[in-house]
Design goal:
- The protein has one domain.
- The protein contains 3 helices and no strands.
Length: 72
Amino acid sequence: MMGESMAGTRKKMAAALAAVNLYLQQEEAAAQELQPSSQETKSFEFSPWSQSGRQEMMAMRRLIQLRAFTRF
């Protein structure tokens, strides 16, 4: 008799712990969805220095493609 009630208690405890664990995982996933990603915000910022650098790289590649330099 005591073994049967002990097994039932263990099953209930395991079910309760599994439910709490699932709830915590869902809460964590929901919290991560609400937080803005730092990578997303940085990719849309405008910087004159980065814009100038990209333009210089494109100009240099264009000159190389036109074979303006003989050493490359």
